[in-house]
Sequence to fold (269 residues):
Amino acid sequence: MLLIVKLGGSILKTGASSELFADLKEIMKSNKIIFVHGGGSDVTDIASKLGKEQNFVISPQGFRSRYTDKETIEIFTMVMAGKMNKKIILALEKQGIKSIGLSGLDGSLLKAVRKKRLIIVDKRGRKKVIDGGYTGKIIEINKDLLWAILKKNYTPVITPIAISEEYEPLNVDGDRTAAEIACNLGADKLILITDVEGLILNKKIISKIKTSEIDSILPEIGQGMSTKIHSSIKALNGGVKEVIITSGAGKKPLSSALNHKRGTVIING
Ligand SMILES: Nc1ncnc2c1ncn2[C@@H]1O[C@H](COP(=O)(O)OP(=O)(O)OP(=O)(O)O)[C@@H](O)[C@H]1O
Ligand SMILES: [Mg+2]
Fold:
C-alpha cells in the first residue's frame, strides 16, 4: 500500500519517541510511505526569539492561520525546511530508513497560487479584507519526482512550503498538503498523526465516522482538529479509501491505528 503520513508538529514537539519511528520501520517493510510534517509552534517560538511576534488571523469559516508576511515566510522556511525536516530525517535514518527531505520548492514539488487577499474576522467580529501575504493554495504536484524517489526505495519527507507562479515560497497547511498528495498519487490511506488520540466529541474518542455524519458535528470541532477533518473529507472525495487521525505516542502507535485499535477512522458514506 501507499500511505501518506502527516507527522504533526505537536507530536514532534512533545518528543516523537523512537517507538513511533521503530513502528514506522516495521510498517515500511510492506508499505511505501510519503511523509508530510508540521511544526507551526516551533516556528512561533523561534520567531519570537528573533523578535518577530507571530500574528494569527481567523477566517469567516473559523479557521485560524498564521499571518505570513515576508519576514515570517523566511523564518517559516528556516524552521520548517531546516530544523523540523532534518529532525525527522535523522530519526528515520537512525532506523535505517533512507530518507530525502524536500520542500515544495525543490524540483517544484508543490506549485501553488498565492492568495491575493484574505478575508478575516477582526476582534469585534467584523469582516476585513487584508493582503494575502505569503500563503497559497496548491494547484500542481510533481508526481514524477515522488514516484522516482519511491522507486529507488527512498522515503520522501515533505515540508509544506509551495512555490508560487512568481517563484516565491508560500506557506501551505500541512494537513491539506498531505490530503492533496494522497489524492494526486492515488494513495490507499491518509494518516494524520497528532498529539490527541483522535477526534474527540463530548470527551469521547470517536473510533469511526462517515463523511455524511460530519456536517452536523463540525461546529463542535475546535482549531487544529477542524483542519484535519476538512482535509480528510478532501482526501476521501479525491479517492483515498480511508483516513485515520491518531496519536503518535505510546507503543506501536501507527500499527494499532492501521488495525483500527486506536484513533479515528473516517470513510466515505
Ligand atoms: N474535537 C476535537 N478533538 C480532538 N482534538 C481537538 C478537537 N478540537 C480541537 N482539537 C485540538 O486539535 C489539536 C491538534 O491539532 P494541532 O494543529 O494542534 O496539531 P498538529 O496538526 O498535530 O500539529 P501541526 O499543526 O504543528 O502540524 C489537539 O491537540 C486538540 O487540542
Ligand atoms: Mg495542525
In short: The first strand starts at residue 2 and ends at 7.
